[in-house]
Amino acid sequence: MSQTSTISDVRAVITRSRTVGKDVSVISLECPEIAGKALPGNFVNIKVNDSDQPLLRRPFCIHNVEETRIEIMVKSVGCGSSMLCNAPVGTRVLVLGPLGNAFTIDTPDYRTALLVSGGIGAAPMLFLEKRLAVLGRNFSHCIGGRSKADLLTYRLSNCSVATEDGSEGLKGTVLDLLRTRLSSSVQDENVKVFACGPNAMLKAVAGFCSEHSISCEASLESVMGCGIGICYGCLVELNNADGEKETVLLCKEGPVVDGKRLVL
Predict the structure, then answer these.
(1) Phi-psi region of 125 (alpha: psi -120 to 50; beta: other; left: phi over 0)
(2) Which pLDDT score, from 0 to 100, does residue 52 have?
(3) What Cα–Cα distance (Å) separates residue 61 from each residue in 28, 120, 194?
């Protein structure tokens, strides 16, 4: 996984906000200092207003980079995310980033990238897709949700979808979709899976990839109050190189980890 080298803390201006799904918005922020250094998989920590409520910053994957702007995909689930989704254009927020490591995409060990996401796990996938396209790599998306309303395919290309209730695409989980995809058109190609979504989904995808000797990287979510290893709010349990469990700070060793490190 590639590591970010330089971090900036800037006051960025919201230049655009649009609804792209059920309680989900994509928000554009003018912050050239971060846009120029960001890599797919990086995240930012945002102080949503100048008051002490909420006190802590909120972490968001970098969804896209457009010239001097970054975009984040935000699901309104609490006071901080709701305030950000409802903030008008022109609002200034404190943005710390780019933080964390990045997906490893420039290695020669694969020809086809399968981007697997569930729900708001689609957040880092547009930025990742665009960088894969620049590298000339084949890619496609496997996207899952409980129902059609939960699918986030906004601006993504080459998408296959699955819903647990059968309201769109394959009836089943995104893992069922991945199995179908790998058993058909890409079975003879070198494949690498890049995944983001709920922890249970990531563990299932990582376990499947391990069983079939498929390279897999997963982007995990956790509470990240500081994003730089001070607050110790993002402790997660992972496997180390010897297969033993260890507790690490996700903001320092992630959010992208090798799928083999997930404790299944």
Answers:
(1) alpha
(2) 73
(3) 13, 10, 14
Question: pTM for the complete prediction?
Answer: 0.95
Q: Read out DSSP for 125-185?
A: HHHHHHHHHHTT-EEEEEEEESSGGG---TT-SSEEEEETTSSSSEES-HHHHHHHHHTTT
Q: Element (H or E) spanning 81, and its range?
A: helix 79-86
pLDDT tens-place string over residues 44-91: 999 988 777 777 889 999 999 999 999 999 999 988 899 999 999 999
Please state which of the four CATH numbers 3.30.70.3040, 3.30.565.10, 3.40.1110.10, 3.40.50.80 is assigned to the domain occupying 103-218: 3.40.50.80
Residue 184 burial (C-beta neighbours within 10 Å; 0-12, 13-18, 19+): exposed
Give the start-to-end residue ranges of the domains of the chain. Answer: 2-100, 103-218
Distance CA 49, CA 47 (A): 6
197 backbone dihedrals φ, ψ, rounded to 5°: 165, -165
Q: Name the burial class of residue 196, with classes exposed (0-12), middle (13-18) and buried (19+) by CB atoms within 10 angstroms of its CB.
A: buried
Closest CA to 15 of 57, 75, 67: 67
CATH dotted code for 2-100: 2.40.30.10
Whether the ω angle into residue 54 lies within 30 degrees of 0, i.e. cis, is yes
